[in-house]
Amino acid sequence: MHKGSAGAIVKSRILIVDDNADLRRLYAIGLNQRGYEVRLAANGAEALDRMEQDPVDLIILDVQMPVLDGWGFIDRLSATQSQPIPILILSGYPPPSDKEIPGSVIGWVNKPATIDDVCSKLVGFDVASAAS
Questions:
Q1: Is the separation of the CB atoms in 27 and 16 below 8 Å?
Q2: CB-based contacts of 45: which residues, under 8 Å, 6+ apart?
Q3: How would you label 71-88 residue by residue, b for 16+ Cβ within 10 Å and e otherwise?
Q4: I need a surface site. Which of 17, 37, 65, 122 has the fewest CB within 10 A?
């Protein structure tokens, strides 16, 4: 937890990375209502740019996106971060059986998913202290 821009206590700063603008907005509204401070990006490249200016505590990440997909984003992010940022995968596809899931991935939620489905993966996980 930390103080937000208006001085209110917020749970954590979360970056939602998904090429579907409607889903980004839907999840952002739900997470904001639950006290999270939310940032948005449409693909992995945009997310990396955004994170240079505005660090986050946790990333909710789609896997299949244009420009830079989720796996490429994770590879580039891990090359630039001294401490891994927790990532929750939000995908229309099941976890791959032929690819090792990086250690920074804390969970996998299959689309379509409700905001409650997403938040259930965050329960008991203090993302603010995990990022410290």
A1: yes
A2: 67, 68, 73
A3: bbbbeebeeeeeebbbbb
A4: 37
